Amino acid sequence: MRLQAVKIVKAGLILPLSGFVLLLLGVPATAANVGELAPDFEIATQDGTVFRLSDLRGRKPVYVVFWNTWCSYCIKKTPRYQKLQEQIGDKIEIIAINTTWSDSPDDMRVFEQRHQVMYATAFDNGELITDRYRVVNVPTEFIVDVNGVIRYRDGVPEYLAAHLPDWLSSYVPSTDTAQLSCRK
């Protein structure tokens, strides 16, 4: 029953009720919107280390990407994440979380080897983080600033380095409503 209901939510058929449905299914009804504190999470990365979002609070902004190995747009964006890791990986943490939709850890390992992935990746077994962030399609990207506030949900700027100083300071809500409600 839970799988069917989650698939309906992921298909976007009942998005106005998604928080209510997720709450009924036992998934925390945590929001993940621009200007809000990013839901904390802890996940084992593919290299065996533990990634905890709150460990970076006060230290570094974080680029969180939800993806899958079969997603053509995710594959297309992989070189971008590689380049960012090489150029500014010391200034922003990148973690790509596989939603597990029709994927496996073995699929991820093959993907990482084929594409020579150098940034942190993790497999969201049970989709707890995916659900907490209300991810309904991939890729879904978040920029979390140094204070743990979500600055972007999708619509991430192409030139991240130019925005890093903003993500190291306190959040000031934008008056540009288009930026506040980025949707695909």
Brief account:
The chain is of the alpha/beta class.
Describe this protein's structure:
This protein has 184 residues and is α/β, with parallel strands linked by helices. The protein folds into 2 domains: 1-29, no CATH class; 31-180, Glutaredoxin (3-Layer(aba) Sandwich). It contains 7 helices and 7 strands; from the N terminus they run H-H-E-E-E-H-E-H-E-H-E-E-H-H. The protein has a 5-stranded mixed beta sheet with strand order 5-4-3-6-7, with helices on one face. The radius of gyration is 16 Å and the shape is globular. The two termini are 28 Å apart. Residues 1-28 and 177-184 have low confidence and may be disordered.
Shape: globular
Uncertain segments: 1-28, 177-184
Category from helices, strands and their pairing: alpha/beta
Query: How would a textbook summarize the main sheet?
Result: 5 strands, mixed
CATH superfamily of the largest domain: Glutaredoxin
Portion in strands: 15-25%
* Proportion in helices: 25-40%
The domain count comes to 2
What's the number of helices?
7
CATH architecture of the largest domain: 3-Layer(aba) Sandwich
* Strand order within the widest beta sheet: 5-4-3-6-7
Q: Compute the CA-based radius of gyration.
A: 16 Å
Mean pLDDT across residues: 82
Spell the H/E element sequence. HHEEEHEHEHEEHH
What is the CATH class designation of the largest domain?
A: Alpha Beta
Distance between the termini: 28 Å
DSSP, total strands: 7
The CATH topology annotation of the largest domain reads as Glutaredoxin
